């Protein structure tokens, strides 16, 4: 229920704290859990064609924070998903809003009307919309791939930062900074609550992220391949057969995107190898390729956006099992570490 | 002193153990420390033009394992560095041997004659030389960038595996698998002692690596920028001014290599953008560029091999300070983590 979340941005005052020392302060609850009113600092990414109400509500019901991905929805479809999500869970959930979205104002108003408590924004400047959401008592996290944009988040007054590395599926930063290198840099440049993303889908990677200075994780690929994900069964099954090296960051001239190897991938790679320009690549990409691949299951001609860690996941599990495995693996591995 | 290392491969029997659960078993000493007879499971990479006897002996003297990089040395130069290293420290140290080295047999014999206790091999098939080194009581670790080669290491009977991610400076795997994604995959496919490399230069990244399932770390960039590194002062100073995005993996058609942005980098990037073929790129690269850049300090025309985490390091420190910071940060951050 949205009202479980403390409303209003001004009521939250984060102390300026030493980077890296705060994240699991003894006696203090994890800041990401506090901010969003959740049990585990695990967020499911708002992935196009995967993150509908079923996935979001399942993640929230199991103690994480589920996000609905507005990027692949018409405004009224988003409203329907929000309503179904509220029916399916009383726990907090959020909506991911790409700030390049053509009908941004319409969906921002729907989010307010439907009393969604949390918004994750991405692909744009957080300054433009953070004040609007805050005025309506909505928490805002913004996704970045560099410290440059993390600083913009501070200026914009967001409540939390998601720092996403090169490993992540789909759209990606041009610096190619990996999660291992990005998280400590962002941790050093901001005192805001920090969520790591990119290559995280296991308790091991979650522990690594917390070691690097994050206070929570956003997980895409592992949740894209759950029973509750809206992706086509053919896409999910295809992904469980991928191996190391079967995703690469392509489309660098039009906007770096991590894709799985298929016929379309080979076409892009061939064009890029021979130095094709931005216009040719954009024409080859066309429109609607991600829907075709991920939602409709066209494994030859679709744009198959998925993260590099996909090769680790060989079965389609329910969200409940994924959450249990994440938490138990995290705790088991943490207990195995010893000081030097 | 080399004889501090238990000699002979057959004397070591590693139990087949559940992946991920062994690495810091209570009551058991870390396997990497045991294997090499060192205090901290921290290895300095055998980097061309950086890893001479000064760096290697300083790392070993301070509780890690220093490696001399044979890749940039004539055979008799290597012998000289080994002798000086033995004079400078009684602690164990090793030599990194790229298996593509033209005078491989000569340097393998020098390593045996000089009683070097540990060899790290890279860039080739570990089957060819592991038996030779083992016959002479030398421990062998092999560097890989994929599980495919990790399996070859098992077959070759190496004593430990270094799994190096996309973040690493210099030569790199074509799969572009990052450390965050690579370590759990390799951990799952082998029970051998596992050392993580690529993007590791802080206690935070070391903790992350151990969380991912590694039992030790190999650190390049952070040690390349120490006082004891043989790199030119101009190169080191240049590196401390690099920012995020200032290194990229280039030269993919001739052999993927992570380079820092300079005039040569821009030339390669321009050629690659317009689809230049393997021959043109190889001609542009020519020979001796890494020496020119790293050792001679030609910051315009040299090939500046350095890791992606270079942007985290803003000062040239002595090895002793680096080691102390690594260990204290690791311990501090580990103590701050809580179960979920």
Description:
Chains A, B: This is Nitronate monooxygenase. Chains A, B: It comes from Candidatus Pullibacteroides excrementavium. Chains A, B: Pfam families: NMO. Chains A, B: InterPro entries: Aldolase_TIM, NMO. Two copies of one chain form a homodimer. Chain A is α/β, with parallel strands linked by helices and 340 residues long. In chain A, the strands form two sheets. Chain A has an eight-stranded parallel β-sheet. Chain A has a three-stranded antiparallel β-sheet with strand order 7-11-10, with helices on one face. In chain A, strand 10 and strand 11 form a beta hairpin. The termini of chain A are far apart. The N terminus of chain A is likely disordered.
What percent of the residues of chain A sit in helical stretches (DSSP H or I)? 25-40%
Strand order of the main beta sheet of chain A, please? 1-9-8-6-5-4-3-2
Give the amount of beta strand of chain A, in percent: 5-15%
Question: Globular, elongated, flat, extended or rod-shaped: what is the shape of chain A?
Answer: globular
Q: What value does the Rg of chain A take, in angstroms?
A: 19 Å
Protein name (chains A, B): Nitronate monooxygenase
Keywords (chains A, B): Flavoprotein, FMN, Monooxygenase, Oxidoreductase
Organism (chains A, B): Candidatus Pullibacteroides excrementavium
GO molecular function (chains A, B): nitronate monooxygenase activity
